[in-house]
Write a structure and sequence with these properties.
Blueprint lengths: L5 H41 L3 H14 L3 H6 L3 H6 L2 H15 L1 E6 L4 E3 L2 E10 L3 E12 L6 E2 L43 H4 L2 E3 L2 H9 L7 E3 L2 H5 L1 H5 L7
Length: 240
């Protein structure tokens, strides 16, 4: 059997080196792909940070008028400073003054310094749609993360020391008109159906204030003034 010449040996060595380099490259590629897959799996398994989810849940519970859930998300130091009854009363009073109809979270929470920020859209009777945000300071870490509560968190958009204060005015009451546009008050034959106006009391007063009207607004007591109260009373307004 003849011995291989020098050129053949050199070619064989080069092929062996290339094969070794290729095999090493494949091993590195497999390791890198495995590391990426592990990192992705870990990030998927972790979910959002506890504070972010807490802030999202807080804003959602606020929009659902769930004061009990809100109270459960504030830290123990905050609960020492305010009992649940007072806490719920503050939130209910803020909703009433703002004439809130409903509210919804408008996007994902985001971190801003030591607080989570959540945008909310609030629909009100007196002031239309408000776009505000909760700025929720956090305390604790991990599963023990809670909201470091302050009274300005009763309504989104309030700064420290601020409270919800409503300044509204009722529009001028409308007139009932005859077909020829004369006020019915000037038509003698309409006196028995026209009705009267006066101050609201009891349940009617509560409904009036819930719609954002001042308590001293005049309302239809009976007759056509009562039947067409919504249209004649108009819609309250004021600065936002």
């Amino acid at each position: 059997m003849s011995r291989p010449d020098a050129a053949a040996l050199a070619l064989a060595r080069r092929r062996q080196r290339r094969f070794g380099q290729l095999r090493l490259g494949l091993v590195i590629l497999v390791i890198a792909a495995s590391a990426i897959a592990i990192a992705i799996a870990a990030s998927v398994g972790q979910g959002p940070p506890p504070g972010r989810q807490l802030a999202q849940d807080f804003a959602r519970a606020w929009g659902e008028h769930d004061w009990r859930a809100l109270y459960g998300e504030i830290d123990s130091a905050s609960r020492l400073g305010v009992g649940y009854s007072e806490f719920a009363e503050q939130y209910s009073r803020a909703w009433s003054k703002a004439t809130v109809i409903d509210a919804r979270v408008a996007g994902a929470a985001r971190l801003a310094g030591d607080a989570e920020v959540v945008n909310v859209r609030v629909h009100t009777r007196a002031f239309g749609t408000l776009r505000q945000q909760f700025i929720l300071p956090l305390s604790g870490s991990g599963s023990a993360t809670r909201i470091a509560w302050h009274p300005n968190l009763v309504f989104p958009g309030l700064y420290a020391g601020e409270v919800v204060h409503r300044v509204v005015s009722a529009p001028r009451r409308g007139l009932l008109l005859a077909r020829d546009y004369l006020p019915l008050t000037s038509v003698a034959s309409a006196a028995n159906i026209l009705g009267s106006i006066g101050s609201a009391t009891g349940a009617e007063l509560a409904r009036l204030e819930a719609r954002g009207f001042p308590a001293d607004s005049e309302v239809g007591i009976d007759g056509l003034e009562y039947v067409y109260q919504r249209r004649l009373g108009g819609r309250p307004g004021g600065p936002r």
